[in-house]
Sequence to fold (309 residues):
Amino acid sequence: QATPAVPRIFYGRDDLIKEGVDYIINSAQAFLAILGPGGIGKTALAQKIIEMEAVKEKFEHRLYFIPCDILPNVASLIQGMLQCLKLPVQESKSQTEMLNDYFQVNTKLILLILDNFETPWYSEEGRTRIQSFLEKLVNFKHLSILVTMRGPDGPGDIDWYKLGTESGILPLSTGAARKTFFAISGNKSDLLEATKAVDELLKEMDYVPLAVRLIAQRAKTNPIESLLEMWKNGKTSVLREGRGEFRLTSVEHSIQLSVNLLDKDGRDLLSIISFLPNGIPMWIKNLRRMLPKFPNLDVSVADILSCSL
Fold:
């Protein structure tokens, strides 16, 4: 139930899907990392990749999607994996032993999809246990791993193949964002006649897939002029669907999940940078001059970058 549905409207990612599929099927043991900020479409990309027939054939449908955003530590992650593998409880063994025994006995190719892995990676119990657990999984040569995660780097000391660019998945192209918008909003005549205004609105969304999808939902009932005014006055608060606050229905909630990964110094530094519309040019040189008394400045910068903020 925690696994989101595979999106039906999905434009502008064909090259990334092909790249991911080619890497997985041509690697004896694949370690694929889909990285980037919240809302960029990492989960959807992972779902599209594992839906491809070539991937299903290689692993003979032994593809296990683990929603790590509800599994905040090693113990819950192991429990979640046992549930996905449909392994019954054995009173004589711990859950760790059960999982280890399963991977030792079942040596056919398996692909684990660890979605939103930043949740256990940044857990309060620290990284020692989760890194050790991940590296033990890697020792099973028949086990491949696809991880989606906020940030520019995959977890642990593993040679991850980064999908897309070195910094992760990029926003949509203008054309792909426009196609997505019209497919969701319903190709209404008034919107089609206002393509220039639509493009202006999509540019304001930075062509981020989640933002484009949510503003397109608004366009079903609101004219484009109203949407531009709503954005001008409310910014990300208008980018939500329904009353609940969830990762896939609210841009603000998605952003907050990344902010929650920071400590107080990191949040304070982010709040200062956010007042500067173009960021800080040549920040390595200038940031120290701008904030000479800021505590743990270099560590806070590293934390912000590691969360793709």
Summary: The chain has a mean pLDDT of 92. The chain has three domains: 13-162, 174-238, 262-307. The first helix runs from residue 14 to 25. The longest strand covers residues 143-150.
